[in-house]
C-alpha cells in the first residue's frame, strides 16, 4: 500500500489470523455504516460473528424492512468500525444479503447466544443475513 501520513495506521486487504483473534477475544459491538438514498451515511451498532466458511467475511443480521436492508439492496458498499479505546479497525467491503429465512433465523439465534440474549425472542421474525466481504482493513494503534 502507499505511504501513510500517520505511522499508527496500517492498511491490509485481508482479515489476518491475528486480527480475527482480536475481533473475537471479547464481545465487540461494531458500527455498520451504509449509504442512504441521498448518499449520506447511516450508522447502526451491530452484533457480528466471523463466517467460519469464508475467512474474509463478517456475518451480521437485521430484521426485514429496516432501512439498512433497503439501503444495502440499492448500494452494497459498507464499512464496519470496531474500537477498543484508542485502537480502532475499520473495514470496507461489499455486502451480500441472504434472504433465506431459515438460515437468517439460525444466524440471529446464534448471535443472540453469543451476545447473551434470548434466542427465542427472534422466533417468527423475518430476518436477513448480512455478509460483509472485507476488501480493505484500516488499523490504528
Summary keywords:
single chain, 141 residues, alpha+beta, Pnp Oxidase, Chain A, eight-stranded antiparallel sheet, 3 helices, 8 strands, 40% strand, globular
Task: Explain what this protein looks like in three dimensions.
By secondary structure, this protein is an alpha+beta fold. The protein contains 3 helices and 8 strands, in the order E-H-E-E-E-E-H-E-E-H-E. It has helices spanning 17-24, 67-74, 101-114; strands spanning 9-12, 31-35, 41-45, 49-50, 57-63, 77-84, 87-98, 127-140. A hairpin with a 5-residue loop joins strand 2 and strand 3 (41-45). The protein is globular. It starts with 8 loop residues before the first strand and ends with a strand. The mean pLDDT is 93.
Amino acid at each position: 500500500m502507499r505511504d501513510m501520513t500517520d505511522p499508527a495506521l496500517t492498511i491490509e486487504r485481508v482479515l489476518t489470523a491475528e486480527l480475527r483473534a482480536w475481533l473475537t477475544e471479547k464481545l465487540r459491538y461494531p458500527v455498520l455504516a451504509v449509504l442512504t438514498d441521498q448518499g449520506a451515511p447511516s450508522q447502526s451498532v451491530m452484533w457480528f460473528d466471523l463466517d467460519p466458511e469464508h475467512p474474509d467475511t463478517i456475518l451480521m443480521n437485521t430484521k426485514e424492512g429496516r432501512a439498512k436492508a433497503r439501503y444495502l439492496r440499492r448500494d452494497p458498499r459498507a464499512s464496519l468500525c470496531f474500537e477498543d479505546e484508542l485502537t480502532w479497525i475499520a473495514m470496507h467491503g461489499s455486502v451480500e444479503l441472504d434472504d433465506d429465512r431459515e438460515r437468517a433465523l439460525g444466524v440471529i439465534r446464534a448471535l443472540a447466544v453469543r451476545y447473551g440474549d434470548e434466542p427465542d425472542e427472534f422466533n417468527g421474525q423475518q430476518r436477513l443475513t448480512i455478509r460483509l466481504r472485507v476488501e480493505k482493513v484500516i488499523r490504528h494503534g
